[in-house]
Structure formats: C-alpha cells, structure tokens
Amino acid sequence: MIVTDPIADFLTRIRNAQSAGHKVVEIPASKLKKAMTKILYDQGYILKYKFDDEAGKQGVIKIAIKYDPKDNSPVIRKLERVSRPGLRKYVKAADLPRVINGLGIAIVSTSHGILTDKEARKRNVGGEVLCYIY
Questions:
Q1: Between helices 6-20 and 31-42, what is the axis angle to 10°?
Q2: Percent of the chain at pLDDT above 70?
Q3: Hey, which residues does 49 pair with through a beta bridge?
Q4: How far apart are CA 88 and CA 19, in angstroms?
Q5: What is the model's pLDDT at position 2?
Q6: Structure letter (DSSP) for residue 55
Q7: How far apart are CA 88 and CA 42, in angstroms?
C-alpha cells in the first residue's frame, strides 16, 4: 500500500489505537518515523517502543501506548499534523510555535535532525513543523 503522507499515517495509527484501547500498535518503519518515536518516548508520551527490522521489507515499529492509571485515558490527548504535502509550514528559529504555552511539543524537521520545538529553540534552528502533540 502506497501512503502519500507517511507522517499523517503514523499519527493516525497511534490515534486509532488509543481510541480503540489497544496496548500496542505496529507501524511501518522509516528513519523519520523512528526519530519521531524516539522523541515521543523521551518526552514521556509512550510507554516503550521496539524497532523490528526483521519484519517485512522496511521493518516495523512497535509502540506500547501509555495510559493514565487513574482513569485509563491515553496520555496523548491530541496529535495534530501541521505541515502537509499540499501546504508545507516552515518557521524561523524565532517563530517556533509554543504548543499550549509549553505544555505540549511541536516536532520540527531541521538541518540538525528531527527535534522538539524546545531543542530547536535552544540550538537556534528553524525548519518544517511536522506536528503538535499534547
């Protein structure tokens, strides 16, 4: 299956798994998706992940979704795609967005790799805003 927007597919698979109450979701792997998964793990939005390069041609990312122990609701409240194939969204370092006044994160593709908005601001680099997560 050919996907025209792999980042939107990545976010939608996580969103659908959360709404269905699944513990683990499998996503076709790519370097970009692996970098985004590492950011989600480092920021505490997912429980754990595993890169399975043996499965299939391109490999699979297995993500364990994190739920709040009190009310069993997903930790990720919203996944929002910003830049899309039809309308790319580029920002300078000074114009990097703050998601919910710093409570959420924006994932940015920069010349230094895939970074969060806070890391990009610290390194003073801009780039393409891929998505907002909170």
A1: 50
A2: 99
A3: 63
A4: 28
A5: 74
A6: S
A7: 26
